[in-house]
Amino acid sequence: MVCTIIQGSRLGGRGGSLTMSLVLRAHPQGVCVAGYGQSGGNEILQLLPPPTLQVKETQGLCPERDFKVECGGFSNRPVYSLKYVPDTSLLVTSGPPDSSLQVWQVSAEDSDVIRPVGAIPTVNGTGQPWAKIATVSARAPWVLHGSRLNSVQITEVESRKNVYMAASSNSEELSGLAFLDGNTLLLCCAKGQLCLADVRQPQSPLEAVSVPSAPCGERWCMGVGRGPQGSDSSSQPVACLSSGGHLTLTDLRKTSESLASAKCRVPSPSSGAEFLCVSWAPALEGYLAISGFDGTVHVYDTQSWDSSGREAEPIFVHRGHAFGGSDSSGGPPLVTVHTWHPQKPRTLLSAASDGSLHVWDWVQSCGKCG
């Protein structure tokens, strides 16, 4: 395997550390990054990618290889999660000290400012951790948010109207949530339970099912992939990743059973597993990436996995952040988030706690995928 860092930048500003969201627009695509330093003045930036990332096919060397800042703003609180609201010019962020959301307006063409336009409170959110968020624009621009199972709700972003409140008395902390489609939600608890919910049945109590063979005492997160074209939401693959490096692949039609499992050779995460991340490749069937343990991103091909749980070898490890120096705390950089490019099969973006943003890909010499 040969890795090419298409772009590496240091962007953290006063916040130092970065979270990231890929902003999918027609022309061009962009990247939003934000800082999560504990002091005030955390930057939120929308970046235009270099031309090499705006074309679907590789076109060789390009003289312009840098991101350009399109617009920006400042948050007076750390940004731990950042999501673009599809079909709008809005961003939604969350972070300590509570579970409320902040809504931001990305600048119009005649301005270079990202400005705050409001906040969305969480019902029963007092004293709760920062909220996990997901966005969709099926009927209207919605944000799914909550920090615990009994505080999950959907809010219409523009009107701030609450359109769904989950029925649960379970106060398990959430590590992630996702829209499977306009009606179906998937929630992941930090202790390793998955929960399906239907927006059309708000009174139905939520039932959390444990990830198969989930070791106790580990923190879990999830990643939801795309199902085959034309299939329903139940065929979307789900990967669950633990802070101990256990990876379990499940079927939404029976979350109590695993399709495959493996053990990843990773160190114990230095951040208390706050930034564990697992994501499926949108254009490479069976491929996924994990991060949040150290300054690396591991890529795996899961197509040959079985249910034995044996140790799996990554097909590639991106180590670029690990060589970037120390972060604001003086420790080695930690990858805080990664995401796949939607059209370029083997291109990923990753951000780290030293404020670095990398765009990279790898060449697979065996020619088995592509």
UniProtKB/TrEMBL annotation:
One of its GO terms (cellular component) is spindle pole. GO terms for biological process: cytoplasmic microtubule organization. InterPro entries: WD40/YVTN_repeat-like_dom_sf, WD40_repeat_dom_sf, WD40_rpt, Wdr73. SMART domains: WD40 (SM00320). Gene3D superfamilies: YVTN repeat-like/Quinoprotein amine dehydrogenase. This is WD repeat domain 73. The lineage of its organism: Eukaryota, Metazoa, Chordata, Craniata, Vertebrata.
